[in-house]
């Protein structure tokens, strides 16, 4: 097996952003992964905010076990403690390394941030930043999945007021990406903002792959009895025809204790 490497970098906009990649032989396997290539691109969107706060560092082993079981291609994580994901030596960065995944972390404030894990290289990661309020709204980056490129927005506004700014910022950025393959992975707090963002994004032409789910529906919060839809994956118009499957994972032993949110999984043809 080749030597393993972990690299990190930072930019003016993205302090603390890291990319950790594991270089392994072609025959290397991840526990729980299918033996051959997956038929599509599997995207997991998951907010780690629990009833008592973000997922503690001590429980990230359970999260790693979940990801190894599901084997998604791209993972967008929200409400990740800086202590858990903010350095190359952090538990989440090391988990990405062990799973042959590239890794990026974007601080949202001095306590939490958003993280992206990908089986494919991550390119051009930059912060979504509102100059007027001096607020970090999320991160945008490109996942280079072999011959296909996917532009990914990962946003988690902390308040209803910031959600309005975030919604507008994503709309502005996606206008410049017309005709390209882009996705928005978003999560919101129970204070509000999700319904307005969903309405404005779909009105602008984005496709909601979970909108027609019934029994169970698209609700993701709270964990015990979901009644609110706070976690969204939106597809740009070009990707609408690529949708293979979408679902909200239902509560089970693997998810118990990780979050008050349920994960959203979307699979695309490649």
Describe this entry's structure for a reader.
- The chain is of the alpha+beta class and 270 residues long.
- It contains five helices and 15 strands.
- It has helices spanning 60-70, 82-85, 91-98, 160-175, 194-203; strands spanning 7-8, 18-19, 40-47, 49-50, 53-54, 74-81, 102-107, 112-118, 122-130, 135-145, 148-155, 182-187, 231-235, 243-248, 264-269.
- The protein has one domain (7-269): 4-Layer Sandwich (Deoxyribonuclease I, Chain A).
- The strands form four sheets. Strands 7-8-6-3-15-14 form a six-stranded mixed beta sheet. Strands 9-10-11-12-13 form a five-stranded mixed beta sheet.
- The model is unreliable at 1-37 (pLDDT under 50).
- Strand 7 (102-107) and strand 8 (112-118) form a beta hairpin.
- 18% of the residues lie in helices and 33% in strands.
Short descriptors:
15 strands, 270 residues, 5-stranded mixed sheet, alpha+beta, Deoxyribonuclease I, Chain A
Strands in their spatial order, largest beta sheet: 7-8-6-3-15-14
- What is the general shape? globular
Count of β-strands: 15
Global Rg: 17 Å
CATH class: Alpha Beta
Q: On the 0-100 scale, what is the average pLDDT?
A: 88
Major pleated sheet: 6 strands, mixed
SSE-based structural type: alpha+beta
CATH topology: Deoxyribonuclease I, Chain A
List the helices and strands in order: EEEEEHEHHEEEEEHEHEEE
| Name of the CATH architecture | 4-Layer Sandwich
Question: How far is it from the N-terminal to the C-terminal residue, by CA?
Answer: 29 Å
Could you name the CATH homologous superfamily? Endonuclease/exonuclease/phosphatase
Summed up, the domain count is 1
- Estimate the strand proportion: 25-35%
Helix fraction by DSSP (H/I, runs of at least 4): 10-25%
Low-pLDDT segments: 1-37
């Amino acid at each position: 097996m080749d030597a393993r490497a972990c690299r990190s970098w930072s930019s003016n906009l993205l302090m603390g952003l890291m990319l950790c990649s594991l270089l392994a032989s072609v025959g290397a396997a991840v526990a729980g992964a299918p033996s051959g290539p997956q038929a599509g691109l599997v995207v997991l969107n998951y907010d780690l905010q629990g009833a008592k706060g973000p997922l503690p560092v001590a429980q990230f082993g359970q999260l790693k076990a979940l990801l190894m079981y599901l084997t998604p291609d791209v993972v967008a994580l929200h409400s990740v403690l800086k202590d858990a994901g903010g350095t190359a030596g952090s538990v989440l960065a090391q988990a990405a390394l062990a799973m042959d995944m590239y890794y990026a972390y974007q601080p949202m404030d001095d306590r939490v941030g958003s993280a992206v894990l990908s089986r494919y290289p991550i390119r051009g990661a930059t912060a979504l930043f509102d100059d007027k309020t001096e607020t970090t709204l999320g991160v945008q980056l490109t996942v280079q999945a072999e011959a296909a490129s996917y532009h990914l927005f990962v946003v988690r506004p902390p308040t209803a007021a910031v959600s309005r700014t975030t919604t507008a910022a994503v709309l502005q950025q996606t206008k410049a990406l017309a005709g390209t393959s882009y996705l928005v992975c978003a999560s919101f707090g129970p204070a509000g903002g999700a319904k307005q963002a969903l309405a404005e994004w779909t009105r602008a032409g984005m496709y909601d792959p979970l909108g027609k789910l019934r029994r169970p529906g698209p609700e993701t919060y709270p964990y015990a009895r979901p009644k609110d839809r706070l976690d969204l994956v939106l597809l740009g118009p070009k990707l609408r025809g690529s949708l293979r499957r979408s679902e909200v994972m239902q509560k089970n032993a693997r998810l118990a204790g990780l979050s008050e949110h349920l994960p959203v999984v979307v699979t695309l043809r490649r």
